[in-house]
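Submission sheet (multi-component)
Chains listed below:
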Amino acid sequence: MPDAPDTTHDPDYQRLQWLKAELTHHAHRYYVLDAPEIPDAQYDAWFQELQVLESRHPEWVTPDSPSLRVGGPPLDGFAAVRHRVPMLSIRTETDTEASGAWAFDTRVRKELELSADAPAVGYVAEPKFDGLAINLRYEQGILVQATTRGDGETGEDVTQNIRTIGQIPLRLDPRHAAVPPILEVRGEVYMRRDDFERLNERQRQRIAAGAKGEKTFVNPRNAAAGAVRQLDPKVAASRPLSFYAYGWGEVSEIDGAGPAWSSHFEALECLKGWGLPVSEWVSRCEGAQALVDYHHRLGQMRDQLPFDIDGVVYKVDRLDWQKRLGFVTREPRWAVAHKYPAQEQLTTVLDIDVQVGRTGKLTPVAKLAPVFVGGVTVTNATLHNEDEVLRKDVRIGDTVIVRRAGDVIPEVVAVVHSEPGLKPNAPQGGLFDPPQRGAVFRMPAHCPVCGSAVVRAVDEADHRCSGGLFCAAQRKQAILHFAQRRAMDIEGLGDKLVDQLVDSQVIHSLPDLYRLGLSSLAGLDRMADKSASNLLDALNRSRQTTLPRFLFALGIRHVGEATAKDLARHFGQMDAIMDADVEALLQVRDVGPVVADSIHTFFQQPHNREVVEQLRACGVHWEEGSGSATAPQPLLGKTLVLTGTLPRWSRDQAREHIEAAGGKVSGSVSKKTDYVVAGSEAGSKLDKALALGVTVIDETGLRELLSLPAD
Ligand code: IVH
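Outcome: structure written.
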């Protein structure tokens, strides 16, 4: 022990002990609780002071010193470590439907010989984190070894790298409960999505700057696995890893008795008390229906979680029951993983097409061998732009990872060059010969739709067709954009109809829509009288609109719904916007030079002004105001989230009121959310708000914030 009699009174030694205790406490506040109590600069200063003291007295360095978090010298390899208690895997329920949870509960009840009328079994449901399993060995409360799972019997000693993870305590906090002399904590090391994006951005910059041996990562899981198995702990320290504890291995007895855990949930609470991060999404569930609800709830939230999950895990809560249920081969009978549809799959690139969008942007699109991913069959995936295709070097014939998360359009993540054991998806039936690897991709010099020259502006990643509305593809997209629900809301004007109207030359410009008559529609293929008159009704209804909708509908580059609303609020009148110079446009909230320039350029084109005039002449109208100079903005700078059904306002109405008062409406709840407005049947967003302590109000509360009468 370092504290021999002659050191205890050494002021340097006492200072060092104090620094270690403070740094340990503040690392927990910062990394685990996300609630720092001191400025980062103070932490850094103390950290440096500790490093200086330790460099003067290397004999005072102990395994729990926060200074070890920066990573030691590089290693030659990792030592093999035999697990004292094997690290098991979990049986996976492949049925991603609710029946997966019912089947597990049925098996558990049967094994426990519970009668049909016995009460519901208590479970703990947890996210199934998509990282890698790690065993943390604490002796006398100090982290002495961290090992990977390996084959479950033997893993690798990755202590140096794991020590660099700020969320993992180097010394357990015994204040809440005595720490057993030997305690192995098990959990998942993973990388948060935002950390992953930042890391890849940093890697891209390094590669661009000519750094050798650097690469970007395919997904957070691979990035985390790579970091944990880094031979240079300093590199590992620079990779942002996180950790969640979900179990334990060897646990010694304290004074003859083990920790008095009788349930899994209680054990997790105890781990939390010792300073280990336990996920806020862990939930106690009574019976199968509660598991189904949990699976559903987390599934809805999956894309908004800060980290990747590939399913959830259910565990029988009572530890005596876990013991009774035991194991089959390497899998416990008391736990099961209930998956979600995979968001990434392998498939083959059959071709690379180029599509032309509303603003003339050319997008390379990979045509894929059909693959079931993210719950749908995908045959196309975006490749974004030429630089992306070249960076990923995607070519015809390649095996690629496609990803489809939530409602996001499917994208090609990376080419897989040779990953043993991975087989690309082959179309059903028969042998499948992937095409030969094609040439390096290049954007065409001419628009594939109208033949106009393709141009790429300096400093821009996108190629564009220079044909403007001469290009049928751009015309079609412009009409679809104009007609969409959040713009002019012309019901029934969809892809197929727009194709027909443009291809048969019935419509050349937006105002032509309002000149349609029954006779011109009747000439189209498969157009029944009923649908023609419905469309004319819808067009007629759309004539009465609002200024923000109309502005958004025009499809000005960089003018989305939010900017359209800001513009309308600021200027109040269409003519004022059309005549505004860049200076005036820059006065609008959230409008920067690029957006201001785009709006100004748009209205400088006589053709575009003409379109606005003709639309007005066709009877398109809205109410004009006097601009925002006088309008009160009680919600300025506030972020609100809407959930459930409000008694009197629709979602869109509530949003319009909030935005008119200067507030923002966000789709997901975080600590930054100021209010969650909950109506009836509010779901996971309400749960999350309550978990995070965000203020929850109802419609009446919202009306109060807006200074509107309650009725
Ligand atoms: S418990 C005896 N809980 O899934 C049960 N595992 O096949 C041991 N995993 O590689 C594991 N999240 O890394 C458990 N909440 C969770 C988990 C989880 C992810 C991983 C674990 C292991 C695999 C088990």
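Remark: The pocket of 2-(butylsulfanyl)adenosine is lined by residues 88-90, 126, 128-129, 133, 149, 188, 246-247, 313, 332, 335 (CB under 6 Å).
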